[in-house]
Amino acid sequence: MMVGSRRTLQDLAGKRFGRLVVSAFAGRSGKHSLWRCRCDCGVEKAIDATNLTSGAIRSCGCLRREALSKRSQTHGLCETPEYGAWCNLIQRCYNQKHSRYADYGGRGIRVCQRWLDSFEAFYADMGHRPTEGHSIDRYPDNDGNYEPGNCRWATASQQNSNQRRRQSTGAHSDPAKPFLGPRRSKEAGRGRNEY
Ligand SMILES: [Zn+2]
């Protein structure tokens, strides 16, 4: 059995560690023995043997990048009602295929550049939605744009009193209500006394 400084030179060539396959010994760096590895994604990299055998490193870094990007897609701000409201008002004004486009973008209502550029700016200006019963209302000018100074979180009854008179289109009467999907059961019942 080898002892001393040669002890760690274990032959790893050909072995697989996660996504990494070791191709050849790549030299020593201080106490570390480095092995050239090829990741399944194609990247080659020299990695310390102890990080391979301990399981600390299992890819060139791509595993971690994938996990992070998956997390930012499924968590973060996209699930908040404020983000839903922001997405929805932009859609109503700029997406000609949106079911309510005719009542918004179609009649010239726009979203200010500051809010178009940034959900964070919208959130900084409008703040947290007070209750589930509130949605973004253009007020005081119902024919005006979505912009700071002409928007508020309002209840359905506040909005009804602010609504423009509809011609006899028979359209339903809640133009500024954002679509936020089915109500979440944990919030059911909340808000009734908070108007
Ligand atoms: Zn990789």
SSE pattern, N- to C-terminal: EEEEHHHHHEEH
| Coarse morphology | rod-shaped
Bound molecules: zinc ion
Average pLDDT number: 80
Report the count of strand segments. 6
Q: Output the radius of gyration.
A: 29 Å
Number of helices: 6
In terms of per-residue confidence, which ranges show pLDDT below 50 for 5 or more consecutive residues? 1-5, 165-175, 177-195
Whole-number total of structural domains = 2
The secondary-structure class comes to: alpha+beta
How is the largest sheet built, in terms of strand order?
Answer: 1-2-3-4
Could you give a short account of the major beta sheet?
A: 4 strands, antiparallel
Roughly how much helix do the residues carry, as a percent range? 25-40%
In whole angstroms, how far apart are the ends?
79 Å
Feature tags:
disordered N terminus; 2 domains; binds zinc ion; alpha+beta; rod-shaped; disordered C terminus; 195 residues
